[in-house]
Amino acid sequence: MISPKADLHFHTTASDGRLTPEECLHLAASRNLKGLAITDHDTIDGYLQIRDQVIYPDLELLAGVEISCNYEGREIHMLAYGFDADQQELRDFMAQQRHVRRKRTRQIIERLAALGFDISFDEIMAESGRATISRNHIADAMLQKSYVASRKEAFDRYLHTGGPAYVQNEYADVSDVIDRIHQCGGVCVLAHPGPYYIFEDFRYFLKAGIDGMEYIHPSHNFQTQKKIKDYAVNYGLLLTGGSDFHGIKPFEEQLVGTVCVDAVRMENILDQCQVNMDKKSDMV
Ligand code: AMP
Ligand code: MN
Ligand code: MN
Ligand code: MN
Questions:
Q1: pLDDT digit string (tens) for 225-275?
Q2: Which ligand is nearest to the CA of 16?
Q3: Which atom of ligand 1 is closest in space to residue 104's alpha carbon?
């Protein structure tokens, strides 16, 4: 018998995904997944839209979000799970992160203007709608105005990290993010660690209180999966994974139900949330 599976990394129209939260549910159910975490960038709006709908009784939904953080001047992504989505502090924090993104977007517009491109904030807002604003929306606005022939060209020529129109973010520091998520009863998992980190970085994250590592991800080969898994097991960390589905590229649909983890990983997350809460109440 095949063990039940869960996908713990999924984007919707609330950030930079193509499918609505409901459509993501349909897709996950059609691939026979038993667990799903919607992990939009810096917003829980997509998750909130579907959390009270029981369309598929066999498909468990886990509260999730992918938070952009500052780590020594670098942007890293932290997945948070199992938090209390009704806490006002969490909602305020998400709003603050999106404020930072809007501020950066205005700065990128200024850079683009200096390069001769006439793009307004409203034009970018028209691309993003109510979703978390990102460089993708700036690229799409450039495409709309035929300044570039594709999203890829916008990134390759102007928007890539260190590119002529790039502006560094002012996201919250990683340790601050971890503390805030713990306050809301959730756990923090380092997203797609890939081959980018050295053990020094991992030590820092451990000290900051990270709860887990994402070892299954489309960008990880078997060697990377193993390296991360060994590390996490050694330090008693949670192991998570998912397809990082955005629904933009044609091959992505094949990842859903394929790049996933045993559903028991979801139970492990919820258990750890409880352990953290118990520790917190022992301390007061
Ligand atoms: P942001 O959250 O504003 O920093 O934008 C990040 C998003 O931009 C990522 O989720 C990617 O989808 C996209 N992105 C980043 N770098 C590139 C690139 N070099 N080419 C195409 N898309 C990219
Ligand atoms: Mn994304
Ligand atoms: Mn990410
Ligand atoms: Mn992601």
A1: 999 999 999 999 999 999 999 999 889 999 999 999 999 999 999 999 999
A2: 2
A3: 3
pLDDT tens track for 15-44? 999 999 999 999 999 999 999 999 999 999
- From the CA of 248, give the closest atom in ligand 1: 12
Q: Whose CA is nearest to atom 11 of ligand 1?
A: 136
Domain 94-159: state its class.
mainly alpha
Contact assessment for residue 211 and residue 187, using Cβ atoms and an 8 Å cutoff: yes
Alpha-carbon span 273 to 195, nearest angstrom: 28
Residue with tokens 């095949």: 2
CB of 9 closer than 8 Å to CB of 242: yes
**Ligand 1 nearest atom to the CA of residue 101, by list position:** 3
- CATH superfamily, domain at 5-93+170-283: Metal-dependent hydrolases (3.20.20.140)
Q: How far, in Å, is the centroid of ligand 1 from the Cα of 86?
A: 29
Phi, then psi, of 60 in degrees rounded to 5: -90, 135
Q: Where are the domains of the chain?
A: 5-93+170-283, 94-159
- Asked if pLDDT for residue 284 goes beyond 80, the answer is no
* Protein residue closest via CA to atom 15 of ligand 1: 160
What pLDDT digit, counting tens, does each position of 205-223 carry?
999 999 999 999 999 999 9
154, 148 Cβ separation under 8 angstroms: yes
Please give the model's pTM, rounded to 2 decimal places.
Answer: 0.95
List all residues whose CB is within 6 A of at least one atom of ligand 1: 16, 41, 134-136, 152, 155, 160
